[in-house]
Amino acid sequence: MQILLLTNFFIFFNAQNKSTLSINSKSLSVLAEEYKEIYTTAKEIMTNLLAENKTAETNHVDFSVSDISLNKTEPAIDSKNIKFKNTPHLNWVSDMSYNFSPGFGDDDNIFYRARVSSGLDWLALGEGSLKNQKMQNALNEKMRNMDVLEKQKYKKELNHKENLDQVRAAFDAKKIKLLSDYEKLLKIQNDFTAKQNKIGLKNDAEAAQSKYRLDKISIERKSLESLSKTSDNQNFNNEIINSEIPDLIPVENINFSALVKDKEVALKMEKEILDMKRKRDKQPDLRFKLRYNYYSALSRDRNFASVGATINLPVSRSKNDLESENEMKLKENSIQDLQLLYRNRLSEIYRDYYLAKSEIEVLESEVQYLEAELKVNSTNEKSNTFSPAAYLATAEKLLNNQIQICDKKSDLYEKYLDYRMLSGTDDTAENLQKLTNNDNAGNETYIWSSFFTNYSNAYIINLMNHWHINRVFLSIGKVTDLVKVSDFMALAAQNNIQVYRLIGENSYAKTDDGFNDLQIALQDAKNMGFAGVHLDIEPHTFDDYKTNVDLYAQRLINLFTSSKTWCTQNNMDLGVSVPMQLPAEVATALYNNSIMTYIMAYDVLTLDKKLNKTAVIRNILGPDLYVWVFRINDFQVFSDLLDAEAYVQAAGVTKIGYYDLSQMNNFKP
Question: What Gene3D superfamilies does its record include (predicted)?
Fold first, then answer.
């Protein structure tokens, strides 16, 4: 039987070799044993390889967006805490001149030899003025927002690059392992071939070919090891290697208008910055002058004080303005074309992706066939007449199959990540919300019962999300739809919006014991599940208010302090709305009780006058205990509201609210 095995082995390797008869049986026996060892090594490699494939998971890999910091040393800029001191901008100006010849009329006082003028200039308008600096501060804030938008885009690209690196690292590690197994198998085969060549069973060409195959795989492995990046996340490596190939969102289901949203927001910001620069540059330059003058003339010297003003009014538009407007129009048109480019590019990736996926499926189908062939080829492995040649050939096919799958899967996942990035499907809803709502600063508003009744809960919630409102004061009216209120509060909670009961009833201040009636409304608010209560009680609307200011001030203090005590005992929040002419003693009571105060800052006054009018109560309350409430109807367009917000923020206002949601409807683009 041993002679039969040696004969088979001999015939397999040297069917055409004429010198075989000179090889002794001992050499053939040694080679036969080594050949079986090669088979044993190959079978071990195949067993481990197939076992790894059996443990493959069916879950999809999760490419979550990483929180990449672009510059850890970059200082955080809080525009709401940037303050301007409200002081006049004065310059000390001195001017001297000397005339070498006084000209004609030496005796006339209008001619002089020398003139000295010195005094103060107050920059009321124009470059260097307080208003100009506030406008510049608002402009800087817009430009910072542009930087934030650009960094968001850059962070998205960094996240994409990080995911690509992880995918490549995972599949590089897998391929290196496959190449190492292949190299191990080829090395022992090459050593075996070298021995065969030495005793004449293989010729030099066959030995050289064996060495070439080994060197080729060895070079490929070493090259890949030198290029590959080691991934710290081993769990991710295993997850992506063993995951099921994910599907792509069909091109027809992609919202292409959302893909250009960041560019539309950027273009909108550019337009606003352009408008702000135009307003800044077009404002008149006005300087008030106070001077002390000394004139030296031939007849007599003169000295006197004087006041005056100079004004410079721009009347023509610069060429740069016109060029910038044309550039904005071109960008606006290009955004529409960009959607078509996105569609074409995504369609190409989608087609290539599924073609590559089908090729992988064919290769994976081949694995089953090769696995079955391995079992057949190892059926008689314990027989003395068993030849491992067929098993080794199939083992090489399987290794090559796995290397091809590894390469194609790596390319496939890169296409998958490219598609996700281009289609915008790698962004979370929260990031999109931040991107599209980085304009207005207010977070709180009012809803009166008429608006609440006439619109659906879903519409109201969407409108508040559009304005990124996080707290709302709701008046439910006298005839209450309890089901609608309950559904609204549940929907608001899902959107992280707090709902307070808005109580707007002035009659509570008519008498000294108004809290007795107010307490009933407070209890109703608690029973209905409101997070807090907001009081809008306005005794300043009474006819006798001006003659009884102190009386009504004391009644407000009693109502507010008693309500605060009740809310504290019942674990509810409290806020109050107050007019700009609030008595200082009421503001002091609000401060002492830590009651959040909403200053209803709307009338015909300018922002500067409103800030001056509320300076006392704002100083009493402090920046953390009051909210500046804008009335939307005071503004013509949304950009005017943004300008006003930037202006009061520069003056130290840190919290902003809006009155009310019905006025906000269809106002913000």
Answer: Outer membrane efflux proteins (OEP)
- Report, in angstroms and rounded to the nearest whole number, the Rg of the chain calculated over CA atoms: 41
List, as own/partner pairs, every contact residues 20-25 make where C-beta atoms lie below 8 angstroms and the sequence separation is at least 24, other chains included: 20/200, 20/201, 22/200, 23/199, 23/200, 23/201
Residue 598 has a CB neighbour count (10 Å cut-off) of: 22
Structure tokens of 338?
Answer: 């960009």
Contact criterion met (CB below 8 Å) for 667 and 632: yes
Calpha distance 499→484 (Å, rounded): 13
What pLDDT, on a 0 to 100 scale, did the predictor assign at position 625?
A: 93
Pairwise CA distance, residues 111 & 656, whole Å = 60
* Paired strand residues for 308: 289
Task: List the Cα angle 284/289/291 in 5-degree steps.
Answer: 160
CA–CA separation, 236 and 621 (whole Å): 52
Residue pair 503/521 in contact by the 8 Å Cβ criterion: yes
Helix axes 319-377, 389-423, angle to 10 degrees: 160
Residue entry with tokens 């509201």: 641
Where are the extended beta strands (E) located within 389-522? 444-447, 471-474, 498-503
pLDDT averaged over every residue in the chain: 79
The burial of 178, by beta-carbon neighbours within 10 Å (0-12 exposed, 13-18 middle, 19 or more buried), is given as buried
pLDDT digits (tens, 9 = 90+) for 485-499: 999 999 999 888 999
Residue recorded with tokens 């021995």: 195
Q: Is 0.85 surpassed by the pTM of this model?
A: no
C-alpha closest to that of 552 among 530, 521, 583, 593: 583
Which H/E stretch holds residue 630?
Answer: strand 626-631
Model confidence band, residue 329 (pLDDT cutoffs 50, 70, 90) = confident
For residues 222 and 663, what is the distance between their CA atoms, to the nearest angstrom? Answer: 69
Task: Report how far residue 391's alpha carbon sits from residue 375's, in angstroms, rounded to the nearest whole number.
Answer: 9
CA distances from residue 142 to 135, 255, 640, 641 in whole angstroms, order as listed: 11, 28, 14, 14
CB atoms within 10 A of CB 214: 20
Look at residue 50 and give its three-state secondary structure: helix
Strands 90-98 and 285-296: unpaired
The answer to whether residue 639 scores a pLDDT higher than 60 is yes
Contact at 8 Å (CB) between 206 and 197? Answer: yes
In sign, the C-alpha dihedral spanning 459, 432, 327, 343 is negative
